[in-house]
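Student: I would love a firmer grasp of how sequence relates to backbone shape in proteins. Thank you; the sequence and its tokens follow:
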Amino acid sequence: MMRSPRELVGGSPAATYPIAFDGRDLPAQEGQTIAAVLWAAGIQAWRTTRQGGAPRGAFCGIGSCYDCLVTVNGRPNQRACLVPARPGDTVTTQEGSGHADLAV
């Protein structure tokens, strides 16, 4: 009989808490990054490029690139693969540079 990795280590699901993404509540677990929460919810793109508006999500997953940028609690340009999800976070898709309200 084949056992799952969770069964092998005796793990159990961790308690979850909600974070908001574009107005939708998503379950997060302690220690998850925002990118991990979005992936677990089936969301693969959460930013658009500055030129052309192409969708982007996680690429490297280790903070070396900038494809996974999101706006967290009103702060743009946060790397979703590095930022831990915290209870009550509000995350929004980042459009372009994330500074559209500062355009002159």
User: Anything to note?
Assistant: The longest strand covers residues 16-21. The mean pLDDT is 88.
